[in-house]
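Subject: Protein record for review, amino acid sequence with backbone structure tokens
Category: Structural biology, sequence-to-fold work with a learned token vocabulary.
Format: Residues in single-letter code; tokens as whole numbers, each standing for a residue.
Body of memo: The sequence and its backbone structure tokens, given next.
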Amino acid sequence: MKIFVTVKPNAKENKIDKIDDIRFSVHVKAEAKRNKANQATARLMAEYFGVTVSCVRILKGHTYKRKLVEIIGI
């Protein structure tokens, strides 16, 4: 399953807002330095979808707020 994710780093809390079936807004406490926000996003998405972190892959947008994420095993 491929989804589009908009990441908002330095948020007050970790949360996911579902916009529609393939678009999500992810708020993470982690800062956008040294890949910390990407790692926090992967952990949060894995928890949301009930899969392991290794099943969440960021395909595009490693250095941008808008990302294409693949969830394997759904």
Remarks:
- The first strand starts at residue 2 and ends at 8.
- Residues 2-71 form a domain with the Conserved Hypothetical Protein Mth637; Chain: A; fold (CATH 3.30.1200.10).
- The chain has one domain: 2-71.
